[in-house]
Give the backbone structure.
Amino acid sequence: MDYFKACLEKQDDDSILIFDDINWSKEMARAWKEISSNEKVTVSIDLFRMGIVFFRQGVPKQHFKLKF
């Protein structure tokens, strides 16, 4: 979460962050939930092993969870 908070200070509309092992542990799953629900995140994609977040303004908040 410290890295995410540091990145938030530098993000803009074109920023994309990728997080590895988002379901590796309960703590990581909890962190992913907090990251994907952050007010600055507009789109999040849960790929089970990794998560991707976008910060594009003007896009309605959306969360996608892909199942394989």
